[in-house]
Design goal:
Layout (H helix, E strand, L loop, with lengths): L3 E4 L2 E3 L5 E7 L5 E7 L6 E7 L4 E3 L7 E6 L4 E6 L8 E9 L3 E4 L3 E5 L2
Parallel strand pairs: 2-11
Antiparallel strand pairs: 1-3, 3-8, 4-5, 4-9, 5-6, 7-8, 9-10, 9-11
Length: 113
């Protein structure tokens, strides 16, 4: 049973930073983060493959940085210059080759003054 363990969510003021982490119980081809705000659909934030190819949503470009430690099966999301519209539940995502997808339980990020 694949497990994804997330950490790092919380509350921060606008302009602040947070770092999310997600550790998988085994090696994954692709890992990343999606988010879902109340009343909205889940949307991509960023993903990164085991070879380092990263994809970002337009809303994340220039503010968020995704990285991973393959030895630890862990993906990180450094979020800077946070805005109130970044408030959402952030879900860790992982894909095991070729097409088995897994989701974390979600971690809340709240950006408010």
């Amino acid at each position: 049973q694949v497990q994804l363990v997330e950490s790092g969510g919380g509350s921060v003021q606008p302009g602040g930073s947070l770092r999310l982490s997600c550790a998988a119980s085994e090696s994954m081809f692709n890992m990343g983060w999606y988010r879902q705000a109340p009343g909205k659909q889940r949307e991509l934030v960023a993903t990164i493959t085991s070879t380092g190819t990263a994809i970002y949503a337009d809303s994340a470009k220039g503010r968020f940085t995704i990285s991973r430690d393959n030895a630890k099966n862990t993906v990180y999301l450094q979020m800077n210059s946070l805005k109130p519209e970044d408030t959402a539940t952030y879900y860790c995502y992982a894909r095991r080759w070729p097409i088995s997808d897994y989701w974390g339980q979600g971690t809340q990020v709240t950006v408010s003054s």
